[in-house]
Every structure is written in structure tokens, then in C-alpha cells.
């Protein structure tokens, strides 16, 4: 394994394929402090590389003859797509030839390959997708945003643990504040899942501030917001749609009058900074926490900028030894990872988690 981070990139994933993925990976490789392995159709990848100046860059190719469609079932991918780019990328990780994987392809297949090929960190029942979002003050981590649609309270508690360690040791946030996303701030608000999860978080040693509502996500008053993957994915897609619509509405309004166009020109720098902050491409992708190797899942419609930033983020996780910190954090909270779901949930009223 190279001393500098080596990241495998699923060159065939996403809506746009290698024409967008490969240039993004090249941009990341130009930082000169990481290596990239492009996994996919060797002919197509070489053709794109031939159009770029890659002299001096650490870029290799791992051939893969199959491409996973965005609608394919994860179970089918595992059984029938043995030579797919996403499977081969994770196989490289399992063999220690790369330190992490980045894919904009089928997220379900990415999760399945991550779990069954490289495996979970001991003590983690379900890996979770953690999205980093901009706020009024500082980034917030929303977890889970789609990996686990149906969850139990113990799963949400583990999501909180993984995100807390990630926020503290990778994002360098001291004593991250953790909130539980539900329909009201008061204790007792929500469905059975959030009510039971609230009790677990309240008894834990986390810096738990209680329930938070959707309107609290962007205030910056909380560092980690925990929810199941169904709620998290709906929230994430709503945010993306709102950001895109606001941008289009603003452009439409600017065109309506000369005064508006003058105002736009005067505030162009501020508007540019605003657009950058709400652009998903700035954060690249969502880390899949809980796997033995670093993995980032990118938006299916990711552009080259998003891929570049996802590769850079994956490399930074490797340098910061994110998984090592997660394993150490789990050892400090052994009751979360080792006690059975039933034992933990049945004893929430009697046992104080240290």
C-alpha cells in the first residue's frame, strides 16, 4: 500500500459515466498527494485519459467488464455482476490495494458490496450514510440519509455514535451536539422509533440536546442530526430540490427588470458565495460510516467537481485515520456495540450507559 492515500473510483457509476467521473478523478490526482485507481471499461478510460494531461500523476486502471444499472437490485448485483466496476473497486479495498472507494453509481449496490465484500467494523450492526450540509454557522452531519429505510432504536444510537466520532476526530468539532430529528422539540414527540430512541440517547454519555425539527437543520445550533434513512433521504432530496429551485427563481426574477440586473451585478460576489455553499458538489459525497474501509457515495448526477471533492474527502479520511478513531470510539462505548438489541432496549429505564 502506498504511503499516500490510494482511492479506487468507480469510473462507470452515475448518470454520466466515465466522461464525467474520469476528469473529476484526474482533477483530484493533480493535488499530487494521492493515488487514484480508475475501475471500469479499460478502453473508454484510456480514451479519456489520452485527452488529458496526466503526466506525473499517479493514476492506474483496473479493468471491469460490467456496469451496474441504477435500477438493479443489490442482491442481483452481488450474485450476477462479479466483474462489475463497483464490485471490483471494493475487492481492491478488501485486498488492501486501495484505501477507499468512491462511487456515484447505484447506492444500494454500493452499500451491499461494501457490507459483503469489505465487511463492517466489529460492533456496527448497520453502516449509515452521513451527509455533510452547510448551515448558518458551520457544517452539520445528517445521518442516515438513505442506507437504512427501516431502523430500530439501537441502530439510531449507533448512527449517533459513528457521527459523533466522525464530527470530533475528522471535522475537529469539540463535544459535538447531537439531536434527534422528529416532529417536535418536546420530549415524547414523534413515532415509536423516535420516542424509544430518545430514551436511549438520553441515557447515553453523548452530548445529546434532545429533539430537533426540520427547521433546525440549517441553524448551526447542532452538529449531528440523527434519523432513519427514510426520513433522512426525503429531507436531503427536499433540500437539493429547494436549492435548485431557488437558484432558478432568482435568475427568473433578475431578468424581469434592469434595476434587478444592476442589483444582481452589485451583489454578484455574495450570490456566488451563497451558491457555492448550497452546492452539493462542494462536499462531493456522503461517507458510508461503519465499513472496514473508507467509502463515499456520490449523487447519481454528480459532475466532475463533485467527484474530485469526493476523492479528496476520501483521501482526507484516510489521512485522519477515520476508521481507527471509529474503532477506538466503539471500544469506549462497548455497551452499545456488544449488548444485544433486546437487552439494551429492555433496560433503558434501569441501566445508565457510561
TrEMBL record:
Major location category of this protein: cytoplasm
Gene Ontology biological process terms in this record: fatty acid biosynthetic process; phospholipid biosynthetic process
One Gene Ontology CC term in the entry: cytoplasm
Class of this enzyme: transferase
Coiled coil ranges: none
Subcellular location: Cytoplasm
Enzyme nomenclature, EC number: 2.3.1.274
Listed GO MF terms: phosphate:acyl-[acyl carrier protein] acyltransferase activity
InterPro entries: FA_synthesis, Phospholipid_synth_PlsX-like
Known pathway: Lipid metabolism; phospholipid metabolism
Keywords: Acyltransferase, Cytoplasm, Lipid biosynthesis, Lipid metabolism, Phospholipid biosynthesis, Phospholipid metabolism, Transferase
Superkingdom in the source lineage: Bacteria
Catalytic reaction list: a fatty acyl-[ACP] + phosphate = an acyl phosphate + holo-[ACP]
Protein family (similarity comment): Belongs to the PlsX family.
Biological function: Catalyzes the reversible formation of acyl-phosphate (acyl-PO(4)) from acyl-[acyl-carrier-protein] (acyl-ACP). This enzyme utilizes acyl-ACP as fatty acyl donor, but not acyl-CoA.
Assembly with partners or alone: Homodimer. Probably interacts with PlsY.
Name of the protein this chain belongs to: Phosphate acyltransferase
Source organism per UniProt: Desulfonauticus submarinus
Amino acid at each position: 500500500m502506498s504511503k499516500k492515500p490510494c482511492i479506487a473510483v468507480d469510473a462507470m457509476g452515475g448518470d454520466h459515466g466515465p466522461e464525467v467521473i474520469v476528469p473529476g478523478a484526474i482533477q483530484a490526482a493533480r493535488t499530487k498527494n494521492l493515488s487514484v485507481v480508475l475501475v471500469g471499461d479499460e478502453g473508454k478510460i484510456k480514451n479519456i485519459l489520452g485527452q488529458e494531461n496526466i503526466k506525473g500523476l499517479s493514476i492506474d486502471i483496473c479493468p471491469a467488464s460490467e456496469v451496474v444499472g441504477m435500477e438493479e437490485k443489490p442482491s442481483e448485483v452481488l450474485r450476477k455482476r462479479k466483474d462489475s466496476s463497483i464490485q471490483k473497486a471494493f475487492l481492491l479495498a478488501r485486498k488492501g490495494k486501495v484505501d477507499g472507494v468512491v462511487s456515484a453509481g447505484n447506492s444500494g449496490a454500493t452499500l451491499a458490496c461494501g457490507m459483503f465484500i469489505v465487511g463492517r467494523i466489529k460492533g456496527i450492526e448497520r453502516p449509515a450514510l452521513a451527509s455533510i450540509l452547510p448551515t448558518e454557522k458551520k457544517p452539520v452531519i445528517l445521518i442516515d440519509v438513505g442506507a437504512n429505510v427501516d431502523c430500530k432504536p439501537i441502530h439510531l444510537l449507533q448512527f449517533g455514535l459513528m457521527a459523533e466520532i466522525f464530527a470530533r476526530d475528522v471535522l475537529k468539532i469539540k463535544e459535538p451536539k447531537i439531536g434527534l430529528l422528529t416532529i417536535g422539540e418536546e420530549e415524547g414527540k414523534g413515532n415509536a422509533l423516535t420516542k424509544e430512541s430518545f430514551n436511549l440517547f438520553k441515557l447515553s454519555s453523548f452530548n445529546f440536546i434532545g429533539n430537533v425539527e426540520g427547521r433546525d437543520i440549517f441553524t448551526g445550533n447542532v452538529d449531528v442530526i440523527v434519523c432513519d434513512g427514510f426520513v433522512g433521504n426525503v429531507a436531503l432530496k427536499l433540500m437539493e430540490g429547494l436549492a435548485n429551485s431557488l437558484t432558478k427563481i432568482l435568475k427568473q426574477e433578475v431578468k424581469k427588470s434592469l434595476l434587478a440586473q444592476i442589483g444582481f451585478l452589485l451583489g454578484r460576489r455574495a450570490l456566488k458565495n451563497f451558491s457555492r455553499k448550497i452546492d452539493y458538489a462542494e462536499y462531493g459525497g456522503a461517507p458510508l460510516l461503519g465499513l472496514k474501509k473508507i467509502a463515499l457515495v456520490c449523487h447519481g448526477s454528480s459532475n466532475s467537481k463533485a467527484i474530485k471533492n469526493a476523492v479528496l474527502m476520501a483521501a482526507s479520511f484516510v489521512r485522519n485515520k477515520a476508521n481507527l478513531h471509529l474503532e477506538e470510539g466503539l471500544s469506549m462505548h462497548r455497551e452499545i456495540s456488544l449488548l444485544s438489541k433486546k437487552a439494551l432496549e429492555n433496560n433503558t429505564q434501569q441501566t445508565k450507559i457510561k
